[in-house]
Amino acid sequence: MRTKLIVGNWKMNGSRAVNAGLLEGIVAGLDGARAEAAVCVPAPYLQQCQDVLTGTPVAWGAQDVSVHACGAYTGEICASMLAEFACRYVIVGHSERRAYHRESSELVAQKARAVLAEGMTPIVCVGETLAQRDAGETVAVVGGQLGAVLELLEPAQVAQLVVAYEPVWAIGTGKNATPAMAQEVHAALREQLRARNQDAAPTVRILYGGSMKPENARELLAQPDIDGGLIGGAALKARDFLAIIHAA
Description:
alpha/beta; 8 strands; TIM Barrel; eight-stranded parallel beta sheet; 248 residues
């Protein structure tokens, strides 16, 4: 049985004062929740997360990483730096990074490998645009994105991944895939994982990342291959984030 995982992606939001209230509210409201919870925050707030969340059930992580080791790469943050803040997770390949920063699937694969090399867990994001979905290309697109990662890693490393399916057309738009639509893609991704590592595929958690909210979380999370959520806007309100955690 895969334990559900709910990860908050704060994106470029937060302040020290706001973060303190949010983190303390999440910890206080867990109340025996059986799902695992984590927050992935802007790099300047990793120390604050470490200070507040150490010793609690809530894990923390980063939203991106450099493919390079430490050195002459101004503005970049290498994996070993993130590891110093005891990050458990690092998001790689988010659709906003792919679109706004022109990150290729090959670059995303290199980032996943860098994260694994430092003992952290990459959350590998895949997803299609509305035009690609309308053209019937969803499985081919997300399969190509995940395939680039699987090709670069050793089969044994597959077990250390978390995958997040985030239909681009459902992020921040108020739209979301129906549970059946999401399940279809999640099942295809699990079959792809199985082809690379048959033993690991049943244990790898595949999260849904397309506008999961308290109102739709329970139905989405009831699907057999949806193992949690990568939560955007709802992760910025303790009450909403906790409602999703408890739905899981």
